[in-house]
Structures are given as structure tokens and as C-alpha cells.
Amino acid sequence: MCTECGCSHRSGPAIRVDGQPLARDGLRRVVDLGLPLSAANDAEAARVRAHLDAHGLRAVNLMSAPGSGKTALLEATAGRLAGRLRLGVIEGDLATDRDAERLRRHGLPAIQVTTGNACHLDATMVHAALHALPLAELDLVVIENVGNLVCPAAFEVGAHASVALLSMPEGDDKPAKYPQLFRMADLVVITKADLAMACADFAVDRATRYLRGIGSHAPVIVLSARSGAGLDAWVDWLAEQRGGRRASAQRTP
Amino acid sequence: MHEAALCSALLEQVARVAREQDAARVVRVRVRIGPLAGVEPELLARAYAVGRIGTVAEEASLEIELATVRVRCRACGREGAASPQQLCCGSCGSADTQLLAGDDLLLTQVELVARLH
Question: Among A38, A111, A149, B41, fewest CB within 10 Å belongs to which?
């Protein structure tokens, strides 16, 4: 029995902390921490990167709103890679494997991740898909994220670089409206340039100003998957992503 | 977005700290959320009110500390406050800034009641 207060606590005299008496059921303790809530997914993302590094590979996270032309861009890219770059794709959608099928028809190894109700890919899903790709036969992995300008920005997938697509019909102010996603992009690609005449309100220099305004220094490439215009700069940038070299595409000031 | 999933991650971390500290229960949880974290504090609080039930933090209050956006200007070197919509330097107006704080999403403190032995 405790000699100080007569309680049945066996460990000795009552302890006072900052003048507070011993709580009825034990000592109160404050623990200071600095734990990111994303720690579990971040740790998995680090494991994805380690897995890629072990195969001498890098990965690019491709993000945009639904329908901006991510899959179409990869289809157009497939035809321009011969002998230069061997690409593998992890394709994220809520439902169907239509996009992975399209890419396979263009000769790209593609693994479909159907997320069900999840609106973004996370590192766990990407890690599982990596095991199904023929990594030894690839030079670069592209992770085509679920079409969504909000959620993918909050979830690391283990990529080494990120690309944000913005199609002309969407309007040039999207970087200002979705700053988190556009700010994290290492490259911004303006797509559907073949529709420039019909999208008279879209100004590339204004989109670039919005991008700079959110603190992004990312280069901007304008292209059309349909016409092929601007694709060379995109393929050059992709090729530069392999083997750890940083992008050196012309920056739009 | 995903405040429910984040709440689960939060409660898992709190439970782990409680286990490591050999705590009987948790009485207070403090998090710091920045405006660029992509999280609505109110939604996290609502998810927490329900999510904590049945866990070691069932009776723990949630304190949300709102972080501010701070940037360092690469052009003039000044550090100062900024906003999510306007990340330019408050002194010289340059857009060439580096984010110092504002995307925080951290568990910063837990108050525990130790287990008796």
C-alpha cells in the first residue's frame, strides 16, 4: 500500500506533475510528436521507389481531369518510341479495363488497376501493379492516375516525377483553381491543341501565368495527340526521365 | 478530401503511440493542418467524432491547430506569410518562392493516461 495517500498503487509515493495530483487511474503524460498522417502511404511510396530503383527504373505520375487526354497521349506516344524507350504503364480507373486495353493494342505493356470507389491511386495499388509489369524489359514506367484534379495530389504513388495535363476545352484557369495538383507537377502539358480555334478563350500564356502564380516553375509543352504537333518535345522529356537525368525542356518564362 | 481515411490513419497512429507509452487511454489528441494540406478541418473533426468510438481514444478530445502558409522568397530572401491562392512574395512580389509551411498534416501531441501496474 502506498504510504503517501493510502491508495493500493504498488509503485511507491504519489507523483505530482506540475502541481496536479495523481489522477485516479494513473499518471497523465503529454507526448509531443510530429507524425505526418500520410506516413503509412509515404512509407509504401518509398518502397515503390526502392523497387523501381532496384530495376534501374523511374516512374512518372500522369495526372489530369477526366477526359484531358492522358490515355490518348500515351497511345500517340507508343508510335514514337520504337528503339528509343521501352514504356510500361500502370493504368488507374474506377471501372473497366478499357484504357489498359487501348494501350496494349498500341503495343505498350499495361496493367489496369480498377479502384472501385477510390478516386485516386495510392502507393499500395501501384506496388501491387508493379509486380505484374515486365520490369526487366522496360526503361520507364508511367502511372496514369485516375482522372481527378483534386485527390491524386494528396497521395504519393512512388513516382520520381509528376506531369499534369490540361486540355484546351477545360479553360486556362485550372492551375489557379487546383493549385495543389498543378504546383506539384514537374511538367505541364497542354493537350488538344488541335481544338485551339474552337477554344478561342484558351490562352497558353495566361495558363502559364496562372501556373507561375501558384509557385510552379514547371516547363509547359503544348501538343495535340491527334495531329502529332508538339509530341516530339513530350517524348524528349520522357526519354530524359530515364536514368535519373532531370528534364531540360525549354521553359516558358 | 478523404477526411475519413485520414481519420483512420490518425487513430492508428494515436493507438500505436498509446501502446508504445503503455497508456490506459488517450484524453487529448492535437493535430496541425495547413491550408495547403487538402483537408477540411471541419470534416476531419466530424469523422473523428465517430471514428474514435471503440478505440483507445474514444474519450479523447481533438484539437485542431490551423497552420499558416509561409514562404521564403528566392528573389529577395525575405520570409513571410502568404495564402494558398497567392504564393508570391509579400515584399517584392516575386513568384519564385519556396513553401516553408502550410501543407502540414501532422499529429503533433497526444495526452495519455498511463496504465497502472
Answer: B41
Task: Give the model confidence (pLDDT) of A235-245 as tens digits.
Answer: 999 999 996 43
B27 touches chain A (CB under 8 A): yes
Closest CA in chain B for residue A215: B95
Determine contact: B66 vs chain A, CB below 8 A. Answer: no
**Phi, psi angle pair for A129, to nearest 5°:** -65, -35
Asked whether the beta carbons of A68 and A191 are under 8 A apart, the reply is: yes
Is A179 in Cβ contact with B109 (below 8 Å)?
A: no
Asked if B54 reaches chain A (Cβ–Cβ under 8 Å), the answer is no
Nearest CA to A216 among A179, A178, A248? A179
User: What is the residue-wise DSSP string for A199-243?
Assistant: -TT--HHHHHHHHHHTT----EEE--TTT-TTHHHHHHHHHHHGG
What is the spatial distance between Cα A191 and Cα B48, in angstroms, rounded to a whole number? 41
Interface residue A151 vs chain B (CB under 8 A): yes
pTM, whole model, 2 decimals?
Answer: 0.82
Instruction: Find the length of chain A.
Output: 253
CB atoms within 10 A of CB A194: 15
Residue B2 CB burial class (10 angstroms; 0-12, 13-18, ≥19):
buried
